[in-house]
Design goal:
118 residues; mainly alpha; Multidrug-efflux Transporter Regulator, Chain: A, Domain 2; 2 domains; 5 helices; elongated
Length: 118
């Protein structure tokens, strides 16, 4: 399929598709007329990328785990490991934010809330 059809079917802009291609997340073949042609599997790869992004994975993390465009996606065991690691990272960040919130709350009643740490 050409880039316009892929954009329509995936809900992504042509610029986003070109960006993903430049980063190696998807691949196209060039036709003699210079047009990009994407295999049907590209929709599956884009769905994988978009789902991973919605789950909090950065493009850099996705690139690391996504095989070269056109190869098989990571297996269920590897994906489960990635999700466990992401959950652990989120839990750590929640703990940091809770600690920050607690510190801010204790400073509310101080005469100089931004003074020397207690």
């Amino acid at each position: 399929m050409q880039i316009g059809e892929l954009a329509e079917r995936s809900g992504l802009s042509r610029d986003t598709l070109r960006f993903y291609e430049k980063r190696g997340l998807i691949a196209s073949l060039r036709r003699p007329n210079g047009y990009r042609h994407y295999p049907d599997e590209t929709l599956m790869l884009l769905n994988y990328v978009r789902t991973a992004q919605r789950l909090g994975f950065s493009l850099a993390e996705i690139e690391t785990e996504l095989p070269a465009a056109g190869e098989n996606l990571p297996g269920a065991a590897r994906l489960a490991d990635l999700l466990r690691h992401k959950i652990s990272s989120i839990d750590s960040r929640i703990a940091e934010l809770q600690s920050l919130r607690d510190d801010l709350a204790t400073r509310l009643d101080l005469a100089c809330p931004l003074g020397v740490e207690n």
